[in-house]
Amino acid sequence: NSELSAIRVAMEADQFELYYQPKINMLTGRVLGAEALIRWNHPTEGLKAPATFLPVLNNTSTGVELGRWVVNSALCQLQVWLQQGLDIHVSVNIDGYHLQHSRFLSDLSELLADFPNLPKQRLELEVLETSTIEDVSHVYSVLNVCRMMGIRISLDDFGTGYSSLSHLRDLSVDTLKIDRSFVKNMLTSVGDLAILKGVIGFAHAFECDLVAEGVETLQHSQQLIDLGCECGQGYFIARPMPANAFKRWVEEWN
Ligand code: G
Ligand code: G
Ligand code: NA
């Protein structure tokens, strides 16, 4: 497959880069962390978004390898930021097939061993609740091992999958990320508002942190705060940006 081999070449040539998007407490303004989002600096096509190349990697060993690169790069960056005095966490997106890979846990331990002084709670794994998971009990045990290691687990795009509620019952997670579609529609759709309120209620009942995705306007942020969701991420706060720009952004924001 030529697309796959192009990606392998790009990995060799160091053309992938992590962008970071801030998550803040919208009530206090405090910067809580950043989500790492992969980009491809393509030599002829320019900056490519993940949707243009991640699908090709689904269920491939190259995909697993790129996933490992993402975790390692995020850990390197996190270590630098912590040394510079930033009080934040960094989250990375983990694909279902990567999570289910037989070496996921041993790879992760190996990567973390290079950062012995890094507090594990500063790393969060964002797991898509909609990713195809063949063996739920295996994934649960993988995620529980991660939590025992101190790593935080976040359920991404929460509310869009079928099995969200039983996940909450059977798996202890740290954070629920409210899918951006509910935020987008909450001001105009009674149904979306009801789901949003329900998700906020579940988070409180299960004592999870909550982060709303897709906060695009002041009105979104005010309404979310009123509903009891103080933490958010979205274009109204900041777009994803390169690591250097993120550091400057935090300094200007504070
Ligand atoms: O950055 P952007 O909004 O284009 O990202 C689109 C989606 O791509 C994100 O919602 C996320 O699910 C996925 N994504 C971004 N970066 C990564 C990554 O490093 N690894 C994985 N597995 N998915 C990512
Ligand atoms: O689902 P996930 O948290 O991985 O979403 C990250 C994706 O969402 C990235 O592709 C990012 O560029 C995009 N994104 C971030 N903030 C906003 C926003 O306010 N509105 C929209 N439409 N997309 C956003
Ligand atoms: Na995510």
Automatic annotation (TrEMBL):
It comes from the Bacteria. Residues 1-254 form the EAL domain. This is EAL domain-containing protein.
